[in-house]
């Protein structure tokens, strides 16, 4: 497996920019799913982050980074959070194939954002794409390894489906949420057979 075929994990918000003094409203909640608890965070613009394996420790760390990035503590609720929760619940129940919740891309920029947009817009439910193919789609044919890094930086896994990016050798590649999580997501979408137990 090459570096391009490994995802290093969900991104953490970048340090707050010097001009980020203005507070942005945000809220969060945890959602129980078949792949474990997810932390969902949203702003008034849309869903901004999904964090795998959101146990107490992971949640505390993610919330501290988000509070710093957005310049203050969370609100109790933001409407996009309810939409995201409802849609993810329907997805895991096998009742939703395409997310409509608005996305806030503020935790991604540059090449990574271009690749993630191409993934979100061009790789539908039940299909997969290779790292090289995704590099070609964004006009960067020599950037298959950088595509792997972009997948690892994805702040919105599951909704922006980095689990659908697979290795060129026919393997499933790496995944920040763990290979078992990737297998379960691909099985849910019918790409892989469901696990026997």
From TrEMBL:
Q: What is its main location?
A: cytoplasm
Q: Which residues form the Methylated-DNA-[protein]-cysteine S-methyltransferase DNA binding domain?
A: 111-191
Keywords from the UniProt entry: Cytoplasm, DNA damage, DNA repair, DNA-binding, Metal-binding, Methyltransferase, Phosphoprotein, Transferase, Zinc
Pfam families xref list? DNA_binding_1 (PF01035), Methyltransf_1N (PF02870)
Q: Does the keyword Protein biosynthesis apply?
A: no
User: Which residues belong to any copy of the Methylguanine DNA methyltransferase ribonuclease-like domain?
Assistant: 31-104
GO annotation terms (biological process):
DNA alkylation repair; methylation
Recorded GO cellular component terms are: cytoplasm
Alphabetically, the GO molecular function entries are: DNA binding; metal ion binding; methylated-DNA-[protein]-cysteine S-methyltransferase activity
| Region listing for Disordered, in residue ranges | 1-20
Where in or outside the cell it occurs: the entry states:
Cytoplasm
Q: According to its UniProt entry, what is the function of this protein?
A: Involved in the cellular defense against the biological effects of O6-methylguanine (O6-MeG) and O4-methylthymine (O4-MeT) in DNA. Repairs the methylated nucleobase in DNA by stoichiometrically transferring the methyl group to a cysteine residue in the enzyme. This is a suicide reaction: the enzyme is irreversibly inactivated.
Which NCBIfam families does this UniProt record tie to the protein?
Answer: ogt
Q: Which family does the UniProt entry place this protein in? A: Belongs to the MGMT family.
Protein name per UniProt: Methylated-DNA--protein-cysteine methyltransferase
The organism encoding this protein is Streptomyces lydicamycinicus
């Amino acid at each position: 497996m090459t570096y391009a075929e490994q995802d290093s994990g969900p991104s953490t918000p970048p340090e707050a920019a010097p001009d980020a003094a203005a507070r942005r409203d945000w809220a969060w909640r945890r959602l129980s799913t078949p792949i474990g608890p997810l932390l969902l965070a949203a702003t008034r613009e849309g869903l901004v982050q999904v964090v795998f394996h959101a146990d107490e420790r992971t949640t505390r760390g993610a919330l501290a980074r988000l509070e710093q990035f957005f310049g203050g503590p969370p609100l109790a609720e933001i409407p996009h959070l309810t939409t995201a929760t409802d849609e993810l619940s329907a997805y895991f129940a096998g009742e939703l194939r395409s997310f409509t919740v608005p996305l806030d891309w503020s935790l991604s920029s540059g090449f990574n954002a271009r690749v993630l947009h191409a993934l979100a817009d061009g790789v539908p439910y039940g299909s997969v794409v290779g790292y090289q193919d995704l590099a070609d789609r964004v006009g960067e044919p020599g950037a298959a390894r950088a595509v792997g890094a972009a997948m690892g930086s994805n702040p919105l896994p599951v909704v922006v489906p980095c689990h659908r990016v697979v290795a060129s050798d026919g393997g499933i590649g790496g995944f920040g949420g763990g290979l078992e999580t990737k297998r379960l997501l691909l099985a849910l979408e019918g790409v892989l057979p469901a696990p026997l137990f």
